[in-house]
Amino acid sequence: MRHRSKLMQREALEGFLYIAPWLIGFTVFYAGPLIASLLFSFTSWDLLSPVKWVGLANYRSMLKDELFFQALKVTTIYSIFAVPLQLIVSLILAMLLNSKIRAISIFRTIYYVPTILPAVVSAILWRWIFNPEIGLINLFLKLIGIRGPEWLTSSQWALPALIIMSLWSIGSSIIIFLGGLQGVPDYLYEAAELDGANLWEKFRNVTFPMISPVFLFNLIIGIIDSFQVFTYPYIMTEGGPEYSTLFYVLYLYQNAFQYFKMGYASSLAWILFIIILLLTLLQTLLSKKWVFYSGG
Amino acid sequence: MKNRGIVKLIFLYMSLILGATLILAPVVWMLSTSLKDPSHLFDFPPQWIPNPVRWDNYPTALNTMNFAITFRNTVYVTFMEMLGSTVSSLLVAYGFARMRFPGKNFLFMLVLATMMLPGQVTMVPKFILFRILGWVDTFNPLWVPAFFGRPFFIFLLNQFFLTIPKELDEAARIDGCGSFRILTRILLPQLKPALAALTIFGFMGAWNEFMNPLIYINSQAKWTLVLALNAFQSPLEPGAPVTHLIMAASLVVALPCMIVFLLAQKYFIEGVVFSGMKG
Amino acid sequence: MKKITSGLLVLLLSLSLSIAFSAEQQTITFTFWGNPQMADAFQKLAAMFEKENPNIKVDTILIPSKYYDKLLTMIAGGTAPDLAMLAFDKLPEFVEKGTLLPIDSYVEKLNYPKADLFKVVIDSFSYKGKLYGLPRSFSPFVLFYNKDLFKTAGLKYPDKSWTWSEFLTAARKTTKTAGGKTVQWGFAGNYEEKGTFYPEWLFPFVWQNKGDIVTADGKSLLTSPNTVEAIKFYIDLIHKHKAAPTPAQAQTFGGSDALFYSGKAAMIMESYVLVASARTQKGLNFDVAPLPHRKARATVAFPIGYVIPKGAKNPDIAAKFMAFIGGPEGQKVIAELGVGLPGLMSIAKTDAFLQPGQPPEHSYVVIEEAGYARPLPADTPNYIQWYDALTQGLAPVLTGSKTLDEVLPQLNSKIEEILRQR
Questions:
Q1: What are the chain A neighbours of C73 within 8 Å (beta carbons)?
Q2: Partner residue facing A256 (CB), from B29, B116, B121
Q3: Burial of C35 (0-12, 13-18, 19+ CB in 10 A)
């Protein structure tokens, strides 16, 4: 008994040693600003004049702020549609790009290009694609007899447009899925084929379980990222038309640096933090049901 | 049997090519715009093949960006960031994935949690912190924190660690390996795809970093490529159109990322050796 | 021993000398935004200033993007610059929060030619009776027109006599359709590349009709008859007379400016700064004219100037530098960049700004227009927020999915609500 606890103590010490860099870094560089932002959420601060303590006032105003609810609504709708879409498409593409055919590395590079393109360039491209008169999408819809909507200048279709656009930057999740796929041992597939498994069965019984840890990663990161979308709405629509693309972090940013309401922005940030944290905890708990850890 | 194989192959190639065309279209447009004469920037219908071809857009763009200096700065910062984040995140993730210690789950959640607070509200307190350290207008705020682990990399590596069976560790331990040896000799070789991902993300993240350099760097002599790129046209007022120069500059700045991507693929993903328990 | 002692002495001497020198030399920091040409211009001015003031060093800090994010962070973080460039619409907020130093006393002490400033510049940089900034430049809106398109349509070029009706006639006559689609518009509208429309472009028409949107004492006049009539005039150009594009149409061509550059629009109302880009479009024969008038003459101006934050470590030197770059010498250098009218009337009338021999031929028009220019009402409560609400609220009217009458009453109450907030 004593021997075991000594071993455990040693392992615990080793563990702390390995994570020490992060622990130290967190304490020095992050903990302070983190606590500061929490404190700011209880203040009214315009960045220029001294901080004023207001207690829960910011949180109370949030409940009366219709733009706050609009921002929550926009971001949640986006997340519900974009995350599953991104996961499915990036997984399919990763499987395609996992093929051992010639020039596959060139294809992989090409599919990663959108992630490297400057956001302003992607914005220009997509504005063209969504152009109501001559854009690719509406031209295609015209071919099958549908009159396409005004997309980015329409209050109903601007958000769907951004959801579709979110598929543009899945290069990173493709690479991560690719990494996971590469780690699936061939002999598992061979064994499955011997058992007479078809494509779907192979996927369900071999591929998916083996890449599930990586799938969880993309899922959690996908949720975290989707709730913090900022750049494209900022460049392309500025939250409009009629606030239909007022993403949460965009609204937060406006409060912080345009409306001189850093205190309110901080409270918005912490509410978002709690939402994302709860979602992540939920996903982590649920993951025990479907994630398979060969190393766990 | 062979027919099915060929059909699959054709289908595969066609879908990949379709997607690739869509993706390459903006790159072609960027290239075309980068060689245009500014008087043709607003032509409608747009010119796909520039006439006249202004090859001199490239030297002009590079000169305006002070390329030699900004390139050097960016390389320095990127190298330091990549080195720091890769090594530290590897060690930290190993600790989380393979060791047991009290509070591990809570701390791991904390790692994730640092990614959940929008940066806009920690920007000013962080700035004050670095000001107190005397690091304003230096490169330090950009790369020093990287040596203490990046949550995204820690989480990613953790997940990849968990796909490697623990039996490998145990076998090595029986052979008398300590934890560090297990990491370097046994686990690392199994992590090649993850390392490839780290290299690519690490490079791109540092190379294209915008907010941190913007806030912490004042002197133009310390600018990174991204800052120089953004300075071409101030959004706060119009001026003579410089889209052609911006496109040329953007392509030059994006090129190293492509190269790193190709190299990382070559050495990591392609180089997976099929031995041992994995495939 | 001797070597050590003499070594120490030398060290001591050089230390004290360097301390003595550093006490003499003082540095000020100046933040600004702009493209590389502007950076060069300010570096040149800094060098000129340093030459005349040998113990002063000027650190020019070009902020490449997100200017206010960085400026606010610098000030909040305790590293406020000594001098900062500022757009007039941010001035009221900054003053209200107690961030800026009034400069009236400096202006007097340094003998700055205040009387030579355009009135709109003084108004824009004053708040509650005190002056806070000196000008860099400002750009009133004027009417740009395509001479060739006017000639083809057999129309006389716009001039001072133009009222709204001549403007409308010309816009309709220079609009061309082909196969049911418009291929040329009389008026380019005022859309950004992404199709957004900002209400600033309505203000000239509203003021020309003796209406207003929000008054200086914070009341909304959005639904007053003169205002509604003016906004309706603008909207009708798009949907009734089809002489101006819808957001979607403009977006196709890359925005209203692009429409004008490519010769697809005969007229555009734009700030004078457009001249720099218009000149690069070979084959574009353009000129400028005063905006049309109705019950009054009016146009909008966007002055940009320099201010001294309270956290400045060397406000006196900053003021000296400010008076230099905002004074005749500095204004001349900036004028040559073509970023707008100099704030000083005498410099505006020089060739450095007017640049005869280059289009537009009637460049002096903008000097006259400057006399009718008014700044946007940035000194009203929660200006940025009500302006944003106005932008969002008018968007469906621009696309035509809602009419003005449907939208205005609700928009008016929303703006009133925002004005009341504190």
A1: 47
A2: B121
A3: buried
